[in-house]
Write a structure and sequence with these properties.
The protein is an all-alpha fold. It has 16 helices and no strands.
Length: about 400
């Protein structure tokens, strides 16, 4: 391959990585930290591998279609009829609305903690943050898209800085904690952290529908994401106490905090606080922009083709009003919103449904068996999340048994 081809492949790999760096990475040390380092790494390897497999399945479908109008509801309708179409639509609604709620609550919480604002300020801070990020989505999307590579470079540079600062205070004894029974509760956040499947059609078109390059680029981007997530989990788990102290992981979990908030308190470094806020807000704002634009397109399609409504005002209102209302009513829902997005929306749209396609298309018995294993893995994640949200399943870490001396 020539130099131009390598540059293209690197650029698309960073597109994958850019979609992986979002609210999920901010939540990983808290949710997976309750299970422990080794269960977290094992869970990331298993679920990350499963997400890569479904990405390849969807990539092959996009390559077979070779059209700019490729969309998932139509794909699943072709294999599963109206059930597949509406399952995809409802799952996509849950993903996009849920992520916007998570970005709003997470961003407002980070700003509130940095400036030490009381809870009453949420009624001012949340609408202000919403106005800024939504304004950027509506007016300056081209600016962000044009300079996406520079934004990614800035995020990676800041991420490296805060990682180095955090690693100076890591306590290796924290890495001995293991609670494998709690790992299923962390599965939704892990799935969310490896979710980039919405841009698969764009990736395929950018690489001229050449599947040999497509799967390698997706693998490279996911491998980089895995390394970043692993390093960040180790930093968060190594810095934060494994207890319910004010800055402990248990407290952060119950208060629905992004990992950067308790880590900034624990490290007590003005530089870490500043850089971690920049990284977290860059990750949240760029993700809000991408998902906000995606949701606007989805809502516009639904309004025009199903409701016969052609109005930009209606499109903007239906897209952005529900998330900000939910965020105002439930300002401490950051981690829970990500759990629902990952454990229900992403698992259904980009886990269970692609597995069904693989099973239906497989002819070899071993391939079909592998497809059923993939299906059962994601189905277990879905049932686990539904059980926890409905109160029928109670998973809790057994940290009372942890002794850092052994």
């Amino acid at each position: 391959m020539n130099r131009k081809s390598w540059v293209l492949l690197a650029g698309v790999s960073f597109l994958v990585l850019g979609n992986l760096i979002g609210a999920g990475i901010l939540a990983l040390p808290i949710n997976t930290g309750l299970a422990g380092l080794w269960p977290a790494l094992a869970g990331m390897a298993a679920l990350g591998g499963a997400m890569f497999w479904t990405a390849v399945i969807l990539g092959r479908e996009a390559v077979a279609a070779r059209t700019d109008n490729f969309n998932y509801p139509s794909l699943y309708q072709r294999y599963l009829g109206q059930f597949g179409k509406w399952a995809a639509i409802l799952a996509n609604i849950l993903i996009l609305y849920g992520l916007l709620v998570a970005y709003l609550t997470g961003g407002a919480k980070i700003i509130s903690e940095v400036f030490n604002l009381p809870d009453a300020w949420q009624w001012v801070l949340m609408p202000a943050f919403f106005a800024v990020v939504t304004g950027l989505t509506l007016m300056n999307s081209r600016l962000f898209l044009r300079y996406n590579a520079l934004i990614m470079a800035a995020m990676l540079a800041v991420f490296t800085l805060i990682l180095v600062m955090a690693w100076r205070r890591v306590d290796p004894a924290h890495f001995t904690w293991q609670d494998w029974s709690y790992l299923p509760a962390a599965a939704p956040i892990i799935v969310t952290a490896f979710h980039f499947h919405n841009v698969i059609p764009n990736i395929c078109g950018s690489l001229d529908w050449r599947m040999g390059r497509i799967w390698k680029v997706m693998l490279a981007g996911m491998a980089l994401g895995f390394l970043m997530n692993a390093a960040w989990i180790m930093a968060g788990l190594g810095v934060l106490p494994l207890d319910n102290s004010p800055d402990g992981i248990v407290t952060a979990f119950h208060e629905n905090l992004p990992a950067t908030v308790p880590m900034a308190r624990m490290l007590g470094s003005r530089w870490f606080t500043s850089f971690s806020m920049v990284f977290a807000l860059l990750a949240i704002v760029t993700s809000y922009l991408a998902n906000g634009l995606g949701l606007m397109g989805f809502v516009r399609d639904m309004l025009e083709n199903h409701c016969r409504v052609r109005s930009r005002a209606a499109n903007v209102a239906v897209t952005f009003v529900p998330p900000v209302v939910i965020a105002m009513v439930y300002p401490d829902i950051f981690l829970q919103a990500l759990n629902i997005v990952g454990g229900v929306g992403i698992v259904v749209l980009f886990g269970i449904l692609p597995a069904v396609i693989f099973i239906k298309k497989s002819t070899a018995p071993l391939a079909k068996m592998a497809g059923w294993l993939l299906f059962l893995l994601f189905a277990a994640c879905l049932l686990c999340e539904i059980g926890q949200e409905t109160g029928r399943l109670h998973l809790r870490p057994h940290m009372e048994y942890w002794n850092p001396q052994h």
